[in-house]
Amino acid sequence: MEKIELFQIKTEAYQPYGDLLSAAGAGVFANEGNADKFVDQAELCNLRENAQPKLSVFRCAPKTENPLPIKFLERHEHSTQVFIPMGGAKRFLAVVALGGDAPDLSTLKAFWVGPAQGISYRPGVWHAPMTVLDVPTDMACFVYEDGTAADCEMFELKTPLFLDIPEGP
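^ thats the sequence. predicted structure below, dont judge the formating
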């Protein structure tokens, strides 16, 4: 059984796969000073002329298996995909890999993401489906789609990988 190590997400470590979204650092005053605006959180890429922006909400049930099996990865070759939690989970996962027609498992990394953070996947980044760990959680999702099979490609792993989920936040 091949196990994957889980790390707390950090901007630098996650950079090859996407962007980490958060209200960290200095914001810009907005709304007559009643808010701070944190701009340019993620690069949103649409690599297909006919694809349209889609904003959806996924209601995610928590995964309780430990170790957690990773049986397949997916990618959106032509679009950024963004996930932003809408309350609930203390942690969710970003299991990611680079690669072309198939994931390069030597680049596979697993991160846990906190409740006040969101993530983006760059176009073509392989990733496990959205996984929350604590309680059912709604996740806002943004992606460009054109309604074809190229919107989301799936890759079944020959043998599952397993992720040990430690206790805690």
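The mean pLDDT is 94.
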